Structure formats: structure tokens, C-alpha cells
Amino acid sequence: MTESRKQVAGEVAAAIAPLSRRRFLKVALWTTAGATALAAGGFAFLRRSPRDGLAAPANLSYLDASRYQLFVRLAEILLPVTGTALLPVEKVPVVANVDAILGALHPDVRKQLFMGLSLFDNAAVIGHWKRFVDLSDE
After folding, report:
1. Helix crossing, 107-128 with 65-78: angle to 10°?
2. What is the DSSP letter of 61?
3. Are 47 and 123 in contact (CB under 8 A)?
4. Which residue in 24, 78, 72, 80 sits closest to 51, CA to CA?
5. Cα 109–114–120 angle (5° rounding)?
6. Is the entire prediction scored with pTM above 0.70?
7. Alpha helix locations (H) across 48-93?
8. Do 88 and 96 form a contact (C-beta atoms < 8 A)?
9. From CA 130, how far away is CA 69, in angstroms rounded?
10. pLDDT tens-digit profile of 65-108?
11. 131 near 122, Cβ under 8 Å?
């Protein structure tokens, strides 16, 4: 090792000498906790949606308001009927049919499917800063 490297290494060692292992772990723990809290707060803020205030129709048995909005948005995207002779999605009971199909599932399967749908809806926050139901058609 050259003399200048030894000097730099000595300066670095002197600078971190007051930092004991216990103090380092405390600082690392609080820094990690703060970063996690900040990330969770940011995610919760970004997860908000203008569609959250909309209610689901009363005739649905298994879909709550957020899942109802997700299936409405999926129907808008996956069943494009503008410019065709087909009925608009609003006139066809797509979401009511999905609700009826969900009723035929075993409760455990339905619960896991709902968890997956929730993850799908919220996954867009990471890349697009909005939930899936709030993304534009493009």
C-alpha cells in the first residue's frame, strides 16, 4: 500500500471510530424504518383514486366497490365496442355476469382471486403512479 492510501485509510478509520457496532445498527434500523414509512405513505397517497367514492350496485353479491370498478374498467378496455354495431358495455350486464361466476367459486379460491385482483390493480402504481382503474386507454 502506498503512503497516500495508508493516510486515507487512517483518516477514514478515525472518522468512523466513534461509531460502535451498536450505534451503527441503531442508525441503520431507524434509517430503514424511516425510509419504509416514507415509501408506505407515498404508496398510500398514490393509491387514492377518484373512483373510490363510487358505490357498487346493490344487486352484486360478491364484488365490493373497488372490485366492481376494476371489472368495469377491464370491460371498457377488453370489450371495445365504440364504432361498431354492438351494444355499449354499459347496456350489457358484464359485471353482473362476472359476479354470478364468482358465486360459483369455492370461498377460498374466491378470496385468493380477490387478492390477485387487488395486487393487479395496485401494481400499476409502481410504474405509472396510478392504479389500474385510473390509467388512460393508451
Report:
1. 70
2. S
3. no
4. 72
5. 125
6. no
7. 65-78
8. no
9. 14
10. 788 888 888 888 888 888 888 888 788 888 888 888 888 889 99
11. yes
